[in-house]
Amino acid sequence: xxxxxxxxxxxxxxxxxxxxxxxxxxxxxxxxxxxxxxxxxxxxxxxxxxxxxxxxxxxxxxxxxxxxxxxxxxxxxxxxxxxxxxxxxxxxxxxxxxxxxxxxxxxxxxxxxxxxxxxxxxxxxxxxxxxxxxxxxxxxxxxxxxxxxxxxxxxxxxxxxxxxxxxxxxxxxxxxxxxxxxxxxxxxxxxxxxxxxxxxxxxxxxxxxxxxxxxxxxxxxxxxxxxxxxxxxxxxxxxxxxxxxxxxxxxxxxxxxxxxxxxxxx
Length: 266
Description:
Elements: H1 20-36, E1 43-49, E2 99-105, E3 110-116, H2 124-139, E4 143-148, H3 156-160, H4 163-170, E5 179-184, E6 192-197, E7 205-208, E8 217-220, H5 221-231, H6 250-262
Parallel strand pairs: 3-4
Antiparallel strand pairs: 1-2, 2-3, 4-5, 5-6, 7-8
Helix pairs in contact: 1-5
C-alpha cells in the first residue's frame, strides 16, 4: 500500500458504507476501463442492469437471473369484512438499479459476470435474490467474479458457500480476512479461487476468466481503489476519528489506529 495513500479506501472503508452507491458507481466505471484495455479481439465488457444470459440457441428465451415476477392473488378474503377493516394505501416501487460488469462476445453470448457486492446483496431478501442469481449463472456455465469489499453483514463467502470454502479462506491462522474475492470458473465448477484481503496489505490483482479459448485478464484492485478514492474525493467525507461499525478485530483496530495517526488523520 502506498505510504501516502489515506486509509481506508472506498469499498474497503468501514466508515463509508452508507455512501456505497456513490462508491459503487465510481469503482464500476474505473473497473470497466481497466478491463477494456486488456480485452482480446471479439470480446467486450460493459456495465449492465439486469444481466441476461443468452444461450447459443437463438430460439430460447433469455434468462434473467436478477429478478423474479410473482402474480398476486386478486380474490378477496374468504371471511366477512370486519368492522374495523382498513383500506391500504398502494405505493409502487422500482427495484434498485444494480449495475455489474458483463463480458460478452460479439454474438451477445455472456461469458463472465463481475459483481461488486453491496450491503443489500448480503442481507434479508436481497441475499436470497443474490444467491438465486449466482446459482443461475453457475448452472448456466457463466464465469463469476464476486468482489466483497463491504464489511456489513459479514463475508459473502460464509453466506453463499459451503463451510469448507470459508475454512480454506481462513487458512492455517484460522482468522478470516476483512474482505474477499471469489472467482468461479465454468470450466472447473467444483473449484473456487479465493483472494483474502486484509487491512495491513495492499489489495490484490486478481485473474478474471473469459472464454475457454482466451487467456485470463487482470483486475488490479489496488490501482482501482486508489483512483476511485482520489477522483471520488471520498477522503474528504470520511470520518477517520470515529470507530468503524461493525468493530474491527483487536489486531486490525491497532493497525488502523497507528496507520491513521501516521498519516495525520487522527
